[in-house]
Amino acid sequence: MANQKIIAKKQEIVEEIKTKANESSSFIIFENHGLTVAETNELRRKLRENDSEFKIYKNTLVTRALNDLKIDLGINLEGPKAIAFGKDAIAPIKTLSEFAKTHEALEIKIGMVDGEIADINMLNQLATIPSREGLLTMLAGGLMGVVKDLSICLDLYSQKLEEK
């Protein structure tokens, strides 16, 4: 019979996974075996810069937690995997994609973004979206163009009125 302390510890880990999954805008499951300790630390640092983190759990505990949340990721939880959790939906995807470009040992598998299962194709598309700051800059640039055009029109209209 299993030790009660071990069962309690496993249940605590399952609850931790469920909490992180619920509190995160996105979580990404990826393979990281083959990364050196220095590369893993570099990845952790880059994820922390974007208010994200990654943890390695036993697949059985992840499966149990996701089943409790009624999330079915199928065979994507076979073999050694890690999970990146992010408060921003896009930040961990972008970070992992950029890191995977220079580190072949990292392979993104599947994820959940804003409550929807995202396959590798969807994750690759999301990775190409500019950052939040970039999108806000683009929006501000667009609005400035409209304001500039409006001011030119008003100036021309006022000059026309002055001619009369």
Structure report:
The chain has 164 residues and is of the alpha+beta class. It has 2 domains: 4-129, Ribosomal protein L10, N-terminal RNA-binding domain (Alpha-Beta Plaits, 2-Layer Sandwich); 131-164. The chain has helices spanning 4-23, 37-49, 59-68, 91-102, 120-127, 132-163, and strands at residues 26-31, 52-55, 82-86, 107-113, 116-118. The protein has a 5-stranded antiparallel sheet. Strand 4 and strand 5 form a beta hairpin. The protein is elongated. It starts with a helix and ends with a helix.
Question: What does this entry show, briefly?
Answer:
With 164 residues, this protein is of the alpha+beta class. The chain has helices at 4-23, 37-49, 59-68, 91-102, 120-127, 132-163, and strands at 26-31, 52-55, 82-86, 107-113, 116-118. It has two domains: 4-129, Ribosomal protein L10, N-terminal RNA-binding domain (Alpha-Beta Plaits, 2-Layer Sandwich), CATH 3.30.70; 131-164.
What topology does this entry show?
Layout: H1 4-23, E1 26-31, H2 37-49, E2 52-55, H3 59-68, E3 82-86, H4 91-102, E4 107-113, E5 116-118, H5 120-127, H6 132-163
What is the helix/strand order? Answer: HEHEHEHEEHH
What is the strand arrangement across the widest sheet? 2-3-1-4-5
CATH class of the largest domain: Alpha Beta
Low-confidence stretches at least 5 residues in length (pLDDT < 50)? none
